[in-house]
Every structure is written in C-alpha cells, then in structure tokens.
C-alpha cells in the first residue's frame, strides 16, 4: 500500500478549464455532498492545484487497487512522514479511517454527518453558473440550458450521445430499483405522488418488495436525485416530486410536457438559492418568508395571468401576499392589482436576479 500511496502523492492532478461555482472551498475541513457528475471532484482538484504540490494527498477511494485494511494501517503514518497538510478522500467509503491532518476533505453522494466537517452541498449547475460555459448571453443560452441541463459534462457531448451518456451514468451509480424509480419519476415530474403510488405502478410489471422500494425511494431523496416538496402547512399531504436535473426527463422518457419541465427548472433555481418554499392549492410555489407566490407560466400573457389572479384573490388576501411573480419564457411586464405587486419575468432574467 505504501507504493500506491507514493504514486497518489507524486501524481500531478489535472482538470480542464475550471469555471467558478457558487460553492467554494476555503481552509476548513469539509464533507462535500452531491450526485454523480455534479462537479465534486473538479471542485476539489481546483482547490488542491492552488496549493503546494507536496502539501496534499488526493485519494480516489473508488480506485480498485486500494486495499482498505492496508490503507487504514498505513495512511496516518504516510501523512505524518510526508507532512501532508491536506488529505482528500474523493468518493469516500465509510470503512476508511481518517488521518490526523490540518485539513480533511471527503466527497460523497451520501451525507455521513461528521460533526468535525463542514458540509458543502453541490448541485448541478444553476442557470447563472451555466452561463459561464456559453459564448453569448442571449436567447440561445436559455435554449441550450433547456437542452443540456446542469451537468457541465454535457457541453462536450454531441446531441446523439447525451441521453445514452446519462443513462449509463445513472445505471453505474444507482442500483436497479433506484434506477427504475427514477425512470418513473421522470414520467411524473412536477406532480404529486407518493412512494406507495410508485410501488403500485411498478409492481404491475415486476415482482418487487414494498420495503425495498421504500428504502430505494428514500435513498434517491437523501442523495438528492429527486426532491420532494411539501404542501404548505400540510406536512403529511402527498408531496410533489422534482428531478435533480431536467436533462433526466429527456434521457429517461419519451413523454413530453414542457409545462412540467419548466416548473422543475423554476424549482431547482429556488432550491439552489436556499429559498424556503412550498406548493399549495392552485399555487406552484409559495415563499412564506418573502410573502410571495411564484407561478410557472411559460407562455402567459396579461389576459391569462389576470384570470389566474382572479381565482387566487382569496389566497392572496388570506396569506397577505405582497408579490406575485409569473415566470415566463420571454414575456415581461406588470399588472395592476389592489393587494400585491404582480410581475411577469422571463426565466433568464428571474433566475439571475436578486
């Protein structure tokens, strides 16, 4: 194992051109969580490349050459002998023991809850981060975002290989049950659905265990391949399901529904901005702290939005809503309303605004 550690220590790290993320590493110790291809390894390597070469040790724990028992018996002494300040355990495996170093960084899809490590959650690119990969900031950039989603690697792939790439990545990362659930979620994205409903649907075509399905469903949620949105003040009500990235919709199903895709995109922008939100009756997203309603209306005009507001007046008054934002594809404007500020904003303007 000493020979392999020496190889890890001496090997030069390399990354393609790095685009800054909204999440960044300082001199603390971290556990960085995120789904496969969200950019964890690249974020870590970019940080290490800013340090002196002999000050860090980077280990990809998925390397099949690693014998964990031998690694545990030699890692601490190796770090001490070579005065390693920063130890990175990429794709961390829980059976690997930590060494006593100044800065420890682990990456994983799963959050392990180590109290001495600060948690960084890394998602696929949001729209503002995506723009760093674009040559022009015009309507073509938004169209590319709809086509590619937030996986940075998709920028390098031709259109005819993107769906197969995502399928292979997910099949490698997830177990069979998790993958089947995710495929089903892609078909019903942005809708209310329970794990029991998914079980009832999937058991029609295969023999499955309810307990195993429930555990796989929870695993997908905890690793953030899917996101569950509660109904406001009804935590036990059926939750809405959203995908971790809209590119999964195209890659996993042929069913088309642009309205649901658009709603999923809006939700992900709220999620990545750490904005507390809920769904409610006839309301896409309710932001209680901002006293705001967000409506996903990609092709709305003033007339259709005004009719929607009429149906929501009681809700607006009861919840003291100060602002109603209708997120659209390209329509911009405002509507006079006696109780609230009402604004239509194109997605690209709304997503990079305050």
Largest sheet, if any? Answer: 6 strands, mixed
What distance separates the N and C termini? 51 Å
Shape: globular
CATH superfamily of the largest domain: Winged helix-like DNA-binding domain superfamily/Winged helix DNA-binding domain
What number of structural domains do the residues give? Answer: 3
Range of strand content: 15-25%
Any idea of the CATH class of the largest domain? Answer: Mainly Alpha
SSE succession: HEHEHEEEHHHHEHHEEHHEEEHEEEH
From the helix content, strand content and strand pairing, which structural class follows?
alpha/beta
Low-confidence stretches: none
Mean pLDDT score: 94
Radius of gyration (CA) equals: 23 Å
CATH architecture of the largest domain: Orthogonal Bundle
Share of helical residues:
25-40%
Q: Helical element count?
A: 13
Strand order in the largest sheet: 9-10-11-12-14-13
Number of strand elements: 14
Which terms summarize this structure?
354 residues; alpha/beta; Rossmann fold; Arc Repressor Mutant, subunit A; 3 domains; 6-stranded mixed beta sheet; 13 helices; globular
Structural features, described:
The protein has 354 residues and is an alpha/beta fold. It has three domains: 2-121, Rossmann fold; 125-259, Winged helix-like DNA-binding domain superfamily/Winged helix DNA-binding domain (Arc Repressor Mutant, subunit A), CATH 1.10.10.10; 275-354, no CATH class. It is 38% helix and 18% strand. The protein has helices at residues 2-10, 40-48, 68-81, 127-130, 139-148, 162-173, 176-187, 195-202, 210-222, 247-252, 258-272, 302-318, 347-351, and strands at residues 30-33, 56-60, 86-90, 103-108, 118-121, 191-192, 226-229, 240-243, 278-280, 283-287, 292-296, 323-328, 333-335, 341-346. It has a six-stranded mixed beta sheet with strand order 9-10-11-12-14-13. A five-stranded parallel beta sheet has the order 2-3-4-1-5. Helix 7 crosses helix 9. The longest helix is centred in the last third of the chain and has 17 residues, at 302-318. It is globular and about 70 Å long. The protein starts with a helix and ends with a helix. The model has no long low-confidence stretch (mean pLDDT 94).
């Amino acid at each position: 194992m000493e020979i392999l550690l020496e190889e890890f220590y001496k090997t030069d790290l390399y990354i393609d051109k790095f685009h800054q993320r909204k999440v960044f590493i300082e001199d603390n110790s971290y556990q960085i969580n995120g789904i496969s291809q969200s950019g964890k390894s690249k974020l870590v390597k970019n940080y290490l490349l800013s340090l002196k070469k002999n000050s860090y040790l980077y280990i990809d724990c998925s390397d099949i050459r690693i014998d964990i028992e031998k690694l545990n018996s030699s890692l601490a002494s190796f770090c001490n002998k070579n005065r390693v300040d920063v130890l990175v355990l990429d794709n961390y495996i829980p059976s690997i023991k930590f060494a006593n170093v100044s800065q420890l960084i682990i990456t994983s899809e799963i959050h392990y809850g180590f109290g001495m490590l600060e948690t960084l959650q890394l998602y696929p690119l949001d729209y503002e981060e995506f723009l760093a990969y674009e040559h022009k900031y015009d309507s073509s950039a938004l169209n590319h975002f709809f086509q590619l989603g937030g996986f940075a690697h998709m920028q390098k792939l031709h259109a005819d290989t993107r769906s197969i790439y995502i399928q292979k990545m997910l099949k490698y990362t997830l177990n069979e049950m998790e993958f089947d659930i995710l495929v089903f979620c892609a078909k019903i994205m942005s809708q209310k659905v329970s794990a029991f409903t998914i079980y009832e649907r999937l058991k029609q075509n295969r023999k499955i265990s309810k307990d195993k399905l429930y555990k796989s469903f929870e695993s997908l949620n905890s690793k953030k391949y899917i996101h569950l949105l509660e109904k406001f003040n009804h935590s036990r009500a059926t939750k809405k399901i959203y995908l971790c990235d809209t590119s999964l919709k195209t890659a996993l199903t042929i069913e088309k529904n642009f309205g649901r895709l658009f709603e999923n995109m809006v939700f992900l922008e709220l999620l990545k901005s750490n904005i507390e939100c809920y769904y409610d009756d006839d309301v896409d997203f309710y932001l209680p702290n901002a006293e705001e309603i967000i409506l996903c209306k990609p092709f709305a005009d003033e007339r259709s939005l005004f009719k929607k507001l009429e149906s929501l007046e009681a809700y607006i008054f009861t919840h003291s809503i100060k602002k109603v934002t209708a997120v659209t594809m390209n329509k911009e404007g405002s509507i006079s309303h006696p109780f609230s500020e009402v604004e239509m904003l194109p997605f690209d303007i709304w997503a990079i605004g305050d």
